[in-house]
Automatic annotation (TrEMBL):
Keywords for the protein's UniProt record, in alphabetical order: DNA-binding, Transcription, Transcription regulation
Organism, as annotated: Acetatifactor muris
Similarity comment: family membership: Belongs to the LysR transcriptional regulatory family.
Annotated CDD domains: PBP2_LTTR_substrate (cd05466)
Recorded GO CC terms: cytosol
PANTHER family given in the database record: HTH-TYPE TRANSCRIPTIONAL REGULATOR YBHD, LYSR FAMILY TRANSCRIPTIONAL REGULATOR
Name recorded for this polypeptide: HTH-type transcriptional activator CmpR
Database matches in SUPFAM superfamilies: Periplasmic binding protein-like II (SSF53850), Winged helix' DNA-binding domain (SSF46785)
Amino acid sequence: MDISFEYYKVFYYVAKYGNLTRAAAALGSNQPNVSRVMKLLEKQLNCRLFLREPRGVSLTEEGRKLYSHVEAACMHLLSAQEEIGRQDSGDTGAVEIGATESALHLYLLEKMHDFKIQKPGIRIKVHNHNTPEILKYLGSGRLDFAVITSPCNLPENARYEKLLSFREVLVGGRKYAHLGKKAVCLEELREYPWIGLGSGTATYEFYRDFFEEHGTELELDMEVATSDLLLPLIQNNLGIGFVPESLAPALLQEGRLVQIPLACELPDRSIQLVSEKGRAGSRAADSFYRYLKGR
């Protein structure tokens, strides 16, 4: 089946905006022509892609399946087209990355700041999700690469390199100051409220396995979607939880947090740079990737 890329490009904008007129404006075309192209595409694919609604159009089930592939392809092609058209030095263009909250705060924010000073013409778009979601987006081709928190289950076709090792500590607010006097076992802490990242995140799975290895079970009283919510909740005496050691010193020194020593040792964690094997990225993406690796 030989279908023009222009048809898919028109489909991408119609699906993106959910409106023929807005899609036509983005394409520098007109509504009748966009409508004609969509009818031709539906005829060639032998299925209906859109449903008409009072304020635009919505995708059918077939349309959603097609868009999941066309979106990634168009984003890469349009980005490459823009990059080549503007300059061939590698100092312009766009890069799309996925990053966990911990990776952002512990490593990526500072690196992005320094990189942008060196290459201000390169635009960076950051998709902030948990590790499993980021790996899903990477596998679908929506991201150039990812910076994630490990340990986690990486796909076989992934290439990964460690950027940073870090440790986490168990902390509580002033209410839990009595727990900071001596090392305690995890089992002894079951009666206290726990705060942590929810199920489906790499961090939750890491601590679930850690608790099981030490003969107890992780039961969260309060689940949060992002790690930047942990410190405010713990600081306000809503429970105890694990946070990166490098983020806690100021609050510990001020007495707003108390470190709770454990009788068992927590294993190190790391920030990993992940990309797909055999997939070539844009020059902008390659430039940022090599910068993060220190090359």
